[in-house]
Amino acid sequence: MCLIEFRDKISRVYSILIENIKAETIIPIICIQVASGSKIWKDEHKGYSSLSKNGFIDESICHKYEFVNSQTGVNTQTVEFLNNAMKLLI
């Protein structure tokens, strides 16, 4: 799992190897590492479905149709790149 703080550029990265991507695994990690009220860009994986219930502003991208939302700018390109780079190191 990779979390990226991004303002004008990448300012912080948190990465952890996790057993699965179920909500009960990832949501507690996000709640600890990300400030409540933060905007989170994500894909439509069901494990992220309770982010707004946990105090986050979430915007998603559906990879079935697009990789960057042309109206909102929402994308997961940076996190995908970092995940792939880390897999090469493992």
From TrEMBL:
Residue span, ISXO2-like transposase domain: 6-87
InterPro entries found in the cross-reference section: Tnp_ISXO2-like
Name this protein carries in UniProt: ISXO2-like transposase domain-containing protein
Species whose genome carries this gene: Anncaliia algerae PRA339
